[in-house]
Design brief:
about 350 residues; mainly beta; C8orf32 fold; Immunoglobulin-like; 5-stranded antiparallel beta sheet; 4-stranded antiparallel beta sheet
Amino acid sequence: MSENATTETTGSAPRRPLIPLRHEGAEAVEPMLYRVHHLTSYRYAKPVSRNFGRAHIEPRATPHQRVLSHEVVVDPAPARLTAHTDFYGNSSTYLLVDTPHTQLDVHSHAQVTVAERRYPLEPMSRPWEQCTPEHWGSVLPDSGLDFVHPSPRIPAGTAAQEISAAVFTPGRAIGECLSALTALIHSDFTYDSSATTVSSTLEEVLAARHGVCQDFSHVGVAAVRAAGLAARYVSGYLRTAPSAGGSLGTAPVGEMIGSAASHAWLSVLVPGTGWVDIDPTNRTFVDQRFVTTAWGRDYADVPPLKGIVVGPPGATSTLDVAVGVVPDSPAPPTTASPA
């Protein structure tokens, strides 16, 4: 699979153009340094007495990303604010507010460097059949099998098997398969923030062909697992540009979708190069515009914020989320960390 975009064909009929992939021989690009601010705001119609939550909003160290600083600030001041590292190495924050309040603001401030991702040509050119667990060798511990099997939000036997069969054809190069899967979901599904909720099922998304980044990532993971490969759900952020007033409210860079809130994509294990991340929402391989916070089997493992609120009947709430990922001064060299 070359770095230049090619066209996927079936017989003589041209189909979706394949997206380019940066290989090791490409010219090096300097790491990017970002200031990241994530604000989640709840407003309650009546005072609530207790708020307990768990947030996955801290960027994590990866082979391509270095976390220089991170702080979580909660208003009103919490009685408890503690950090936790889960089974997959994600950092999360537990918070408890136990005084009456009508609003809850959770801020995450971070500074990170993000290096480019370049992949060896030989592993990405191998047939996808050589990426199944029996070909892993010692590349992953047994926990990697979690990403091969069905999970609570991504069950087996869905209509995603048809997508999988259309992409993972016999002998096709894994790099080409990932490019084709990204292009297929992007072209066949419509981004519509009103079409689904966080509780929408995979089958509902597959039937409606509408949804958001969370939904498209679930579809991609389901298609990859249907082929017997390992795929994980990844949450994070997209680079943004400051608004005219310079506030946290942001405008997307170029045509990137999902840059004003939390974003999601998927990652596929390719022996010989590791995890390869693709974003079907924006039809691209993940690059320096992306900041990773957490990964798991599906959304249920790594929601940005979930919890329990104790209050009187009728204590309904409204939710607002704003994200800023803004380039900072030139970045220092990035130190790789284990995936």
